Hints:
Strand content: 15-25%
Number of helices: 20
Radius of gyration: 38 Å
Shape: elongated
Largest sheet: 7 strands, mixed
Number of strands: 20
Low-confidence stretches: 210-218
Oligomer: single chain
Mean pLDDT: 87
Amino acid sequence: MATTLRPSQMRVHLARQRWRLRLVWVGIGLGTLGLAARLVYLQGVQASWFRQRAAAQQQALIRQVSPRRMVVDSQGTVLALDQPVYELYAHPRLFKQSPAQVAQALAPILERPAPTLLQELGRAPSGIILGRGLSPGVAHRIERLQLDGLELVAGFARVYPQRQLGAELVGYVNREHRGQAGVELSQEDLLRQPQIPALLTHDGLGNYQSATLPTSWLLDDPRQLRLTLDVRLQRAAQEALRQSLQKFQAKRGAVIVLRVQDGAIRALVLEPGYDPNEFYRFPLERFKNWAVTDLYEPGSTFKPVNVAIALESKRVRPDQVFYDEGRIFVGGWPIQNFNFDQAGAGGSLTVSEILEQSSNVGMVRIMEQLPRQDYYQALRRLGLGEELTTDLPFTSPTTLKSREEFVHYPVEAATASFGQGLALTPLKLAQLYAAIGNGGWLVTPHAVAGLWHPQTQELTPLGHPPPVRVFSQSTSAALMPMLERVVERGTGKPARIPGYRLGGKTGTAQKAGAGGYRSGKITSFVALFPMPRPEYVVLAVADEPQAGNAFGSTVTAPVVKAVIERLITLDGIPPQRR
């Protein structure tokens, strides 16, 4: 039987229900306000923080490898450039297909047998490298397979289109893309460019949306490293040197073409050389630019430098006559001319005739006119005993006896007068001849012209030390006819070119060894061309030619002649009148 509420009880019950309803609505309202406040806080105050967290989980900012600058010669011929390549890595633990299926799919693309690939895939659960240096086309074909567990890593490969030609100056990079020789090493800071940032996104499983990096390889700075080298002249010098070395079975050789006014290296050839594309196939000694690093006693090619020192001192006149006994003793040591056994005494000779006949005794008599202290100081002013400043790596300091030895032992000054007892590099000798040819200025030999902008055709040159005057203009002018007569009437006759004037000096020097001299010899010839206002020094050196008639006049003078003939063609130099 239902209970009937009295009116007073009914009013109390209804009042309680209304309060409960109000409390519910208050709770709902407060909850709604709380949710709204939380929503405002999350989407307003903390929005940026959440965006950063999401980006951190979904995106990766990486520094992709940047290409090195292109290297070109003075005519714009490409000597070194970077090309995009890829490395392929396999992670078998992520495969959704069997390793055998993956190997079968990759085999025709990588051009490798499927069983070999399958064997490699079994080496480890992850990080197996299957290919290096893959072209973009090959990488694209691998991407199209859409196989899980394959990773393509983008990078660059350094390519040298001219192969061995110019490697002496250009150098090469190792597998880490770092310069190891030539301007690739010495100009590393210029050739390496800032790394390009790339933003990659991945899905919730951590897989990147694209297996390859962006292909926007264009840089804000497209400038190229431009060299003073002329590949056309380099090729001619290389061929001439190879023929001579083969004919005389020489151990190695070098050719340098240096512009006398500014020291720009227009050609520098070493034989035997190497291919920088496959540097790992060659012995380590090939990578050394020994025209810059190795010292040798220059012999008779140093005589014109000594004559310049003597004339500059004002103690010797160009027309002065000296007596050549053919053989003398200095400090108890015998010194004689190379042909003393056949010709005997040379008699009375002018300075020019001493150079023309390459008289050792005559040079001793000339340099005896200077106090040994002054002679030593003059050699030091030319940079003997110091390291040559250049933009090529691994230069070696020239060697000169100590001041005490040179001054107190007469034989030291006597042997230095004909280029023995001191040592320098072929590039240093070329620099000294440039000073004779340009009016007395010691310039800085260099291989880098500057940064070249291919679009604007603007060249930003690199700074070099200013020239230093070491001889007067009159001293330089006095030597020009002397050097020219060496070619016209002396040991440099094989370098003569009909219709053109050049001067130079041959040299055949003993090779210094531990405690004395070795059986081998070095032959060389240095020329200034064209006379009487030279533009170039052309030097050729051959190390240990084997034939009995191997001299500077027979081994290296013809090489210099061939190089100058090519210079005439390239520069359009007309025949000269005497």
